[in-house]
Amino acid sequence: MFDKFMTIPLLGPLYLATIAEQAGYDVSVINENILGRKISSEELASIDILGLSCITATVNRGKEIASEYRKIRKANNLKSRAIIGGIHASMIPEDV
Ligand code: B12
Known about the structure:
Helices cover 45% and strands 10% of the residues. By secondary structure, the protein is mainly alpha-helical.
């Protein structure tokens, strides 16, 4: 299912990651379409703040990741949060 999307990193998350990194945060940008696999539960469990950047074509997968992240947070009693941004969230915030 991944190969139907272009494997070009979106500018939005790269800009945000650069700003966060310059502010002193340890940041990783993970693009499942470039990675060629889904992000693992272990990777999700190691994230303090999860930022998801979605267009409409990828928002359902973004919601799936957010749900899995919520389960992991609750199971481990973590205070971390997921935030969804990108053009879909900007245009239809009530959907996310
Ligand atoms: C440039 C562009 C492209 C370039 C991308 C170049 C690149 N490296 O990023 C190319 C030509 C490759 C491209 C391809 C596609 N595009 Co395009 N593209 C655009 C365009 C013109 C600008 C996007 C952009 O870079 N904006 C600047 C960045 C900085 O803004 P941003 O990503 O929105 O991020 C900001 C906020 O959204 C927010 N944000 C983003 N992520 C997150 C995450 C968090 C946690 C938070 C808090 C905030 C946040 O912060 C950022 C800074 O303000 C938009 C139209 C538009 N005006 O937005 C269409 C647009 C995004 N594309 C669109 C589409 C459909 C596609 C394709 C699916 C086309 C296709 N059929 O293949 C592909 C998908 C590519 C992919 N990998 O997913 C649609 C999306 C429609 C939708 N409802 O989702 C748009 C809106 C055009 C349109 N009106 O139809 N695209």
